[in-house]
Write a structure and sequence with these properties.
mainly alpha, 6 helices, about 75% helix, rod-shaped
């Protein structure tokens, strides 16, 4: 079966990509599978976007909008997570100050720099922490 160049016969100045997609769609033998229908729908949409710049622009704008929304969602989630961790660190500093007395600034900074897992371990074992050396076990892991 000889190869037939899909670009032959395209008048000069026409959109080659759009024409190619339309030829692919027309030459495609219809089958009853859902996959073929999905492919045909995708080809239709791509051809429309190439042929109709407004549709392409709307699709691009929708894509950008969805990307921004997802970015904002992730940013909010990270912000909440950081806020919870910072609040946990501050609470532990207050509790440890009440239990051990004055906590040196370097320890406060070390506590604030810990992740949620370490802070939870300190909270779970706060009744077993009798002095700064006991606290070091969690801060120097």
């Amino acid at each position: 079966r000889p190869y037939k160049n899909p670009f032959l016969g395209i008048p000069k100045g026409e959109n080659i990509t759009a024409n190619f997609l339309l030829r692919v769609k027309k030459g495609h033998k219809a089958k009853s599978s859902e996959e073929v229908k999905d492919i045909e729908q995708e080809v239709d949409e791509m051809a429309k976007m190439i042929i109709d710049p407004e549709m392409y622009k709307r699709g691009l704008e929708e894509g950008i909008e969805k990307g921004i929304e997802k970015g904002i969602e992730k940013g909010i989630e990270k912000g909440i997570e950081k806020g919870v961790t910072a609040g946990m660190a501050e609470t532990l500093i207050r509790l440890l100050t009440k239990k051990l007395g004055n906590i040196p600034g370097e320890y406060k900074e070390k506590i604030k720099a810990q992740d949620k897992t370490v802070l939870e371990a300190i909270a779970d074992n706060i009744f077993d922490i009798a002095d700064l050396k006991d606290l070091d076990k969690y801060l120097n892991q």
